Amino acid sequence: MELQKVTSMIMIASERIDKATREIYKLAEKKAETEEYFRIALAKEKFILKDQGMAITLIDDLARGKEDIARLKRDRDLAEDMFKAAIESLRALQAELSGLQSILRFQSDVGG
């Protein structure tokens, strides 16, 4: 590989890492936000069921089974999985950059 091409690929990988880092921040915000919405709605529903005299042993399952609560949980789980996937993607980009830097060092050492 030419030195100039490797340098160009390093620049592109660095830009992709920068973009991925900003995206991870947004996904972290969404993850926290969806967790908050889910927990608040779940707590309210549990309180309502308790207030209605529902058996304590059934409250958690019934509250989580309510359609809007289940949807909020799905949204929360999806946000968490997207965040984890973005972290893994960033790690792959970092590994790519590291490999390119190793190639560049080798080429520089041998006068490539």
Brief account:
With 112 residues, the chain is an all-alpha fold.
Explain the overall architecture.
The chain is rod-shaped, with a radius of gyration of 24 Å. Helix 1 (3-51) crosses helix 2. The chain has helices spanning 3-51, 56-65, 67-110. By secondary structure, it is an all-alpha fold. The protein has a single domain (3-110), classed as Helix Hairpins (Orthogonal Bundle), CATH 1.10.287. The model has no long low-confidence stretch (mean pLDDT 94).
Keyword list:
112 residues, mainly alpha, Helix Hairpins, 92% helix, rod-shaped
Gyration radius from CA atoms, angstroms? 24 Å
CATH fold label: Helix Hairpins
CATH class category label: Mainly Alpha
On the 0-100 scale, what is the average pLDDT? 94
Beta-strand percent range: under 5%
Order of helices and strands: HHH
* Tally of distinct domains: 1
Number of strands: 0
Parts with pLDDT < 50 across at least 5 consecutive residues:
none
* Structural class assignment: mainly alpha
**Largest sheet at a glance?**
none
- Overall geometry comes to rod-shaped
In helices, the fraction of residues equals over 70%
Termini distance?
9 Å
Number of helices: 3
Second CATH tier, the architecture: Orthogonal Bundle
